[in-house]
Amino acid sequence: MNKTERLFKQGEELFVKGRGEEARRCFLSVIEMEPRNKEALNNLGVIIYQEGNAQMATDYFLKALSLDPYYRDAVLNLAQILRATNQLTAMDPLLKKHIRYDPRDREIRAILDEMHLLTKRDSYDARPKDQETGEAFFILSAGNCGTLTLAEVLRTATNARVVYHPDDRLEENILPCYWGEAERRKIFRDARQILMHETWQDGLIYGETTPTVTLFADLLARDFPKSKFVVLTRDPSQYVRSYLFRNFYQGHPADSIRLGPSPDGRDYQEWKKAPQVEKICWLWNEFNSFIDRALETLDQGRFMVLRFEDLFGDIKTFNRLFDFLNLKGLSLSLISETLKTKRNANNYGRFPDICDWSPEFRRNVEQATMKYALKYGYFEAEPAGTGIKSKQPTVRHKKDPAVTVGLPLYSGGRMLTDSIESILSQDFENFELIIFDLGADPFVREIGAHYQKLDARVKFIHTGDRVNHIGAYNFSRLIELSSATYFMWGSYDDCLEKSFISSCLKVIDRDTGIALVYPRTKVLNREGEFLGIAEDFVKADMDDPFDRFLHVIWELQMCNAFHGLFRRHRMIKTNSLRKHCYAHDNLFLAEIALLGKIIQIDDVLFIRHLTRKLKSNLDEHYADVIRSMDPPYMEEGLTLPFCRFTYSHCELVNHSPLPPERKEFLTSEILRCFKHRWAIQLDYEINYLINLLKKGIYYRTWDGRTYGHNLMQQMPNLHYFHVTDVLKVMGEALFIFPEHQGLQEIFETCTSNIRSPNNGMVKPIQSYHGVSQ
Questions:
Q1: Looking at domain 129-342, what is its CATH homologous superfamily?
Q2: Count of C-beta atoms within a 10 Å radius of residue 645
Q3: CA 491, CA 234: separation in Å to the nearest integer?
Q4: How far is the C-alpha of 571 from the C-alpha of 486, rounded, in Å?
Q5: Buried-most residue among 187, 316, 492, 612 (CB within 10 A)?
Q6: Segment 755-759 long-range contacts (CB within 8 Å, at least 24 positions apart)
Q7: pLDDT 10s digits, 185-230
């Protein structure tokens, strides 16, 4: 313990003993030695405030917060002073910033709500007049499980108006409210005040089962003194399974408005890397924490706990529910009919049930949800299954498969299981399905292992390697793992019609010169709505590889052909999937065109979901695609994805067995084609490179990572390699755009820079003294 630490500890001990003046001197001494010691500044503020000097105490707290705006003790102490002096509203920016950083901080959130009340006191009465007399009830739930069913049941009451999701305003504002950017009370008032007022005018009880109201529960408990609350709980393992099936946080349409840490939050970076199942468990805990907060303000007579499982158990449960909510007109027969038509939450076919989970995965889910699971009486016994029996493995005669379907895993949920089911349901059965898991998501591993048990044709491989077997490498590795005559890639979010393989086989077997057969494609959006039949025909069925290649580079749009049926021995001759390159699928199809014919059949047999997020920012788009398909390429720093894409096509041609004159012509045609088709992208990235180099930046990734400008002086060797990498990039760009004056000038500058003997980049050979020669 150094001198500063000893003084700080001594000051704390003196303060506890009531010797404030001596404690003050200790903390002042600490500040003299460490002016940026926020704890000492905060403690001085506390002592000085107790002495009666609020202004000086405020200054100390503000100094502490200038060093760390998220320093919680200083925030709370400052709020106490400003509340006493009627200046709490001055903390608005600081409180909002803190909630964005840590939305779970109940005490700070309560101060923010208090501040909002003070801010709006003069503009409107925070509690509408009819709230004193109107009756209401709200269903508090961690998710959608059972809330719509419960709404239908409660609507059978004759003295209530029950709503479920009456409009989108609460959902649209849930993230700003959660992050502290919007006033929760005002958002709820604007969304529901008229509806509630009309309900009470009609002499009815207002009831709502929308799960989003859970985020407002603590305010509703205070603002509506005659309201009651029903906490609807569910076995957390079933909750997790349900949301894995719906693919929460990995492509669900509502993911953009689902709770999650703010980009400014302390947990955001870890959150981005977290597996899907961890995020779903986090969501369970987060909603239950808001329920906990609301229940703290209620007496026992204002809330009851209802288990989701009880909705479909003893029908008499509804006697207790109706009595608690003062509802009239209970009709058990009507409720029974309602439950028959609404209970469909567990009918997920062969999606892995809890009993199919591995012990490790199940244990992780239980541990992650343990706090609230124990509170509501779950995990006392083994969680019950859904009652759906897993299909037994189909007995098949062992024989060499004619077709290998390689499925590189990326995500889970309903789309993945739908994709696998569509493959296993093919009317041609002599195939193997290799599910290749790169180890990014534990539940994906559960699904792969589950289907390996269900069907003898499935081979599940979990690499546990997230570096070497990822993206494009994952695709090429699947070709190596297969042994069948024909090969095709599956896709986690796309599906096949039953006759996909058989229809393609009939065509490819007719001619050994055919390298690829693919069907027409039905295109769906993220919500599964039909968008149309893809216009993706490429005329590449000629005998001459020269002609086939030309048609591919000029006509290829959507790369649906990438998921067609290939002749495997043609595929193993390719190397495009191992290149550092943007858009490997385009490059691969161009290489296949050099090796054999590409045929499209008329049948619409491929079902494609457009799940990739559309981004207007090219930097984000580049980073997204490169990161998912070829992460090492990202680390090269300054790269030109579309220039590399163009140059890679030229490499394909010049490494092919075509005659020299044809190579020359195709190379010129590639440049003409791509400079026309990708003009905007090529122009953007070249200007981007030139602007960075003019500023002396020789390393910057597309996701924004860079080094400081003094890299040349601090690490000359590293700087040398960055400059040489950039020269390679510019060399390829100049091959495409030899006429580009700006590119030529910056290339000459970089070349001169690296050759200069005085810039410290290339160290001269030195002799070493003191070593025997």
A1: P-loop containing nucleotide triphosphate hydrolases (3.40.50.300)
A2: 20
A3: 33
A4: 10
A5: 492
A6: 759/712
A7: 899 999 999 999 999 999 999 999 999 999 999 999 988 989 999 9
